[in-house]
Every structure is written in structure tokens, then in C-alpha cells.
Amino acid sequence: MTSPKDSIYANPVGEVGAFKFDETVADVFPDMIQRSVPGYHAIISAIGLLAGRFAREQSVCYDLGCSLGAATLSMRHQIEAENCRIIAVDNSQAMVTRCLQALQTDRAKVAVDVVCADIREIEINNASVVVLNFTLQFIPLEYRLSLLQKIYRGMLPGGILILSEKLKFDDDRQQELQIQMHHAFKKAQGYSDLEISRKRTALENVLIPETFVQHQSRLLQVGFGSAEVWFQYFNFASIIALK
Ligand code: GEK
Fold first, then answer.
1. Residue 23 CA to ligand 1 centre (angstroms)
2. Which terminus of the chain has a smaller tally of CB atoms within 10 A, N or C?
3. Which burial class, exposed, middle or buried, applies to 147 when counting CB atoms under 10 A from its CB (0-12, 13-18, 19+)?
4. With a threshold of 0.85, does the pTM exceed it?
């Protein structure tokens, strides 16, 4: 997916408001996410490969917080199981509208339903694959356990949850280093110090990272048999949890 360049935080004037997934963000989203999340494309491709392996006949694959549907499209091109469908959910109407447009130009045959809803309010049933690709970090902490319990209950035995998140670290030096390296990554992608700093302010109290151990303990607590990191690039990681 190509998109206009993200320069939302390039303007030095005015106060920085809290980050929102509105039209302005949706318009530049593909550019924004690939220049902000180290390893984003690698994770998207791997989600397709994992869905190809785990999607079961007559089951559902969920893409929760689908944005423009990058993970949905990747899964759609790899799933071979008969009568398997994808449900892609996002609560930003701006994202959902553009996700539907992207799907219209895609010819793969797996059926996709795009739903504009809060992922805390939808039902999850008969799931062989569930993707939370950089979405849980935007769910307030107090809802994370119940959301994962619902996901676990709605999954088939042998199913996979792919959970990608920005991580934090208990060790102060590690935390500082990983944040600095992420900022170095963003600078190398063409963001200025001003843009990096204004985006950081906008995301404060909106994107709440946790440590890998916090994620892993919660996943095991809700019942997953195992939860391990399969990919990490600085403070961005993706976890596979197996039911
Ligand atoms: C990708 N997965 O390209 N219910 C539904 N959607 C939500 C909620 C909620 N409660 N909260 C946030 N979102 C995508 C990238 S972006 C990650 C995911 C990022 C949605 C929000 O509207 C946004 O589209 C998405 O979660 C997070 O693979 O921007 O860093």
C-alpha cells in the first residue's frame, strides 16, 4: 500500500492534542506505520504465513484493530482452508471506509467482513486465528484481561493469537536505550526531532506499553498453553500465543 507522506507533527505551531485515529491519520496511515514501527512489513507478511498454516476449514480469522486491513489482506492471500472467512474490526470509521476501499481492489477469494465496532463489544466465535497487530496497546489497561479472556474463549483448540505490541522494559537503562534506538529508527526514516517529540506527546496516555512478562503472564492466565516472542526489533515485538 502506498500513501501520502505523514507530516502531521511537522508543524511546530500550536498545542499537541491527544492522538486520534481520524481522517487525517487514516489518509497517511500506511506511510506513518511503516516509518514508525520497526519491522512492520516483516510482521505483516508473517501474519499471512501463520494464517496459511493455522486457518481451519469452516472457521473465522479475526483482525482486531484492522486499520486499513494490511494484516487482513496478507491473511487473505495465504489462507487455503475451505469456507474460512475473515472478520476485520476497527472502531475508527475513517479506517473502516478506507479498508473497504482497499478490499474492493483485491481479488483474493476468502470472504471478508469489515465491521466498525469496538473490539471490546464484539463476539468472538469459532476462531482459528486472531490478530491483535499493535491494537491492544490502545485498549485501556483495565479492559485488557477481559478482552483476552473473550478472545481465548472464542478460539478453537489449536488456534493462534498473534499479539504485536510496543514494549516497555523494567530495567531503566534498557528502557532508555530501546526508546532512543526507536527514535534513531524514526530519524533514519525521515522524521525530524520535532515530529518525533510531538508524536510522543500525542501518544502519551493513549498508547500504554507493557513489558513482555506482563503480556505473557496475562496470556497464560487466560488459558493459553504458551506465549513466546517470535519477532522483535528494538521495543516492538510480536508474540505467538497458542491455545
Ligand atoms: C495493521 N492492525 O496495520 N476497538 C476497535 N479498534 C480499535 C480500538 C477499539 N477499542 N482501539 C483502537 N483501535 C493494524 C494497525 S493501529 C496501530 C493497528 C498503530 C484501532 C484504531 O482505530 C487503529 O486503527 C488500530 O486500532 C491501531 O496491522 O497505529 O500503532
1. 14
2. N
3. buried
4. yes
**How many angstroms separate the CA atoms of 154 and 222, rounded?**
12
Arithmetic mean of pLDDT, 78-95: 97
Q: Is the CB of 170 under 6 A from ligand 1?
A: no
Calpha distance 199→203 (Å, rounded): 6
* pLDDT above 60 for 180: yes
CA of residue 134 to ligand 1 center, whole Å: 7
> pLDDT band at residue 2, thresholds of 50, 70 and 90?
low
Answer yes or no: is pLDDT of 192 > 70: yes
Residue 171 alpha carbon to ligand 1 centre in Å: 28
138 lines ligand 1 (CB under 6 A): yes
Q: What is the mean pLDDT of residues 180-192?
A: 93
d(CA 165, CA 137): 6
Three-state DSSP state, 201: helix
- The protein residue whose alpha carbon is closest to atom 17 in ligand 1 is 134
Q: Can you spell out the DSSP letters for 64-123?
A: ET-TTTHHHHHHHTT--STT-EEEEEES-HHHHHHHHHHHHT----SEEEEEES-TTTS-
Task: Delineate the domains of the chain, giving CATH numbers in brackets.
Answer: 40-168+207-242 (3.40.50.150)
